[in-house]
Amino acid sequence: MKFHSAQNTAEIIHGDCLEVIPTLKDGYAMVIADPPYASGGGGIREKQRSTSDKYGIDSPRFADFEGDARDQRSWVSWMAQWMSAARSKCIDEALIAVFTDWRQLPSVTDAMQWAGWLWRGIVVWDKVNPRPQLGRYKQQCEFVVWGSKGTIPPNRDIGVLPGLYSYSMPAGAKRLHQTEKPVPLMCDLFTICPARGKVLDPFMGSAPAEEAALITGHDVTGIEVTGHYFNTSAKRLRDFCG
Ligand SMILES: C[S@@+](CC[C@H](N)C(=O)[O-])C[C@H]1O[C@@H](n2cnc3c(N)ncnc32)[C@H](O)[C@@H]1O
């Protein structure tokens, strides 16, 4: 399914990214990915609970999503597998940015390098108003592990970028996904991508990255396996493109 803004196109595909990515044409300049973190709970029994249960979301407006029940070994191998598949569709000097939480941060940096990307650093997403935790530090931040396919020359006309962004999660009636990321955060993350560079998003969810790509002037391909969220994305992009 394709959606067109004035200058750009978002193509969204319903399916498993490991099956879809090999069918795509080459030429991506950036991969942005918010995969299932599979981080709720220590043991396999806890990980296999529904995502609404694990992440404390008790609204029937949001469907549970797939892919979050792997144990740690399987999850890390799977992360490396899709990152490797995505890398094979990217141009030299392409960028990758992968969301994670504090529990999975070390494993994401391992998987990224395992897949052949050069690990370049970590950007902090300050969520501003996370759940309070009595007697503990708040889990106020998530992280974006980033890397590149080979070298990236410093003189790419991108400028100096911050290492921390502060945005609240979408809330109330505007919220579309159990683990939704803010569109302005996605727009900021795309400032590292060369002008008009094509973006690949293997875990589209409710499509904030696709909306942000269109806002910032990039063509984008989004993939989503859970039917409910594929339909949510289609509606978001239909509304956005008018
Ligand atoms: C963390 S959520 C992404 C949320 C999204 N960033 C948003 O703001 O709406 C991960 C998404 O990946 C999807 N997913 C899980 N496994 C997948 C797979 N193998 N291929 C494609 N999508 C997958 C899930 O259904 C879920 O919607």
What is the oligomeric state here? single chain
Helical proportion?
25-40%
CATH superfamily assignment?
A: Vaccinia Virus protein VP39
Q: pLDDT under 50 segments (min length 5)? A: none
Proportion in β-strands? 15-25%
Report the mean per-residue pLDDT as an integer: 94
In sequence order, what are the helices and strands, one letter per element? EEHEHHHEHEEEHEHEH
Write down the CATH topology: Rossmann fold
Strands of the widest sheet, in order across it, are 1-2-9-8-3-4-6-5-7
CATH second-level architecture: 3-Layer(aba) Sandwich
User: What is the CATH class designation?
Assistant: Alpha Beta
| Overall strand count | 9
Write down the overall geometry.
globular
Number of domain units: 1
Main sheet, how many strands, which sense, barrel? 9 strands, mixed
